[in-house]
Amino acid sequence: MKSFSEAFLKTFTGLVIIVLLLLLFFGNGAITILLISIVCTAGVGLAIWIPAGYLVGSLVFSAARLFSKNLNQEDQPKLNRDDAALTNYIKTAKKSGLNTNEISSRLKEKGWTEEKISAAFKNEDRVK
Description:
Elements: H1 2-26, H2 29-39, H3 46-75, H4 81-95, H5 100-109, H6 114-122
Helix pairs in contact: 1-2, 1-3, 4-6
């Protein structure tokens, strides 16, 4: 049911934004425009307003997700050269089919500390 509730929330958010924009540009006539477009078309106007609301809501949610992702990345300190290299090694090893335990044991054999290895696994998504 998550997808239905998410779609409903996007649609509702989009419709609210559309109404607010109509109010901004048309004043009190915005509600009249909406009602006329729905009532006079026997509800067919909803076939335009509901998808438009979903589209606007989806755009707002996508922008919010990107904005929050950028904020989270800015708060994180930059990885130093060794940490970035270790994280790249882990990503490459996973792509080649090694599991987490095998990667950890190989890194420990090479002299990496448990603390550095754990931090590198947590930083995987920060390195491209």
